[in-house]
Amino acid sequence: MQAGTSRRAGTCLVVLCFAAACATPRPPAFPTAGGMPFPDFASAYQQATASCAGIKTFTASMSLSGKAAATKLRGRIDAGFAAPAKARLEGVAPFGRPVFVLTADGSHGTLVLQRDERVLADAPPDQIVDALAGVPLGPDALRRAVTGCGLSPGEPASGQQFVSDLVSIAIADGTAFLRRGDGAWQMAGAMRGPLTVAYADYATGRPSTIRLRAQAGGRVSADLTLRLSQVEINTPLDAKVFEAEIPPRAIPLTLEELRRAGPLGGS
């Protein structure tokens, strides 16, 4: 594929529309040291995740804004998830067919660029999402992130409390952060490796604003905000929702081509 075609495909796919830069709120700062032991960490974590732990299916319209490397991103994604590791993401265009459709089941993902009739088949979903938006999240981790359950599965192991009324909970390969809101513990955010998620605008026990940040080489490589609407929880989803519909004359697309065309390709 020629470089110009690759770049056009990536731009069409990732940036549904460009917009003038707006003032980006300062991201929350989560402490990593200096706290006091918090013995009630297990019950606090259970309370904070009660509304998301039982989610088996989740659909939402997600307004996306932010940056990956030097590329401004803005658009809308219609998303559907089913536990344990199925996802469907559609990049919504103002008119006509979706700009892209990503379907994922476990470690297998398929990306269809419907207007260009290009297909990336059977690739790791977290690497596809990373190439598109700079955040390496597979279907299960992405479902956890957007439903307000943080980034890491597993049982809480220990807790620390800080003067800002923030609590950190160690979990497997990451850390969750809790804060009291409306008289109960709520998930404020989480960290795992180079990824950070922060939550805001709670309604009916769940956040409607999700901020995702990724770091690479000691700098922020992606900073995205998702604002959720039209949320439906535990509504039965047909298995076909997560099956890719490949155009009959589709031209193969490689993961490396997608990376070069995506927002991190020129960084």
CATH domain topology: outer membrane lipoprotein receptor (LolB), chain A
- Rounded mean pLDDT score: 87
Beta-strand share of residues: 35-45%
Report the helical percentage.
10-25%
Task: Please identify, by name, the CATH architecture.
Answer: Clam
Largest sheet: 15 strands, mixed
Category from helices, strands and their pairing: alpha+beta
**Strand order within the widest sheet?**
1-8-9-10-11-12-13-14-2-3-4-5-6-7-15
Which features does this protein show?
single chain, alpha+beta, globular, about 20% helix, 6 helices, about 270 residues, outer membrane lipoprotein receptor (LolB), chain A, 15-stranded mixed β-sheet, disordered N terminus
SSE arrangement:
Layout: H1 3-14, E1 36-37, H2 41-48, H3 50-53, E2 57-68, E3 71-82, E4 86-92, E5 100-105, E6 108-113, E7 118-123, H4 125-133, H5 139-147, E8 156-161, E9 166-171, E10 174-181, E11 184-192, E12 195-203, E13 206-216, E14 219-233, E15 251-252, H6 255-261
Parallel strand pairs: 7-15
Antiparallel strand pairs: 1-8, 2-3, 2-14, 3-4, 4-5, 5-6, 6-7, 8-9, 9-10, 10-11, 11-12, 12-13, 13-14
Helix pairs in contact: 1-6, 4-6
Report on the architecture of this protein.
By secondary structure, the protein is an alpha+beta fold. The chain has a single domain, classed as outer membrane lipoprotein receptor (LolB), chain A, CATH 2.50.20.10. 18% of the residues lie in helices and 44% in strands. It has helices at 3-14, 41-48, 50-53, 125-133, 139-147, 255-261; strands at 36-37, 57-68, 71-82, 86-92, 100-105, 108-113, 118-123, 156-161, 166-171, 174-181, 184-192, 195-203, 206-216, 219-233, 251-252. It has a 15-stranded mixed sheet. Helix 4 (125-133) runs parallel beside helix 6 (255-261). It starts with a helix and ends in a 6-residue tail after the last helix.
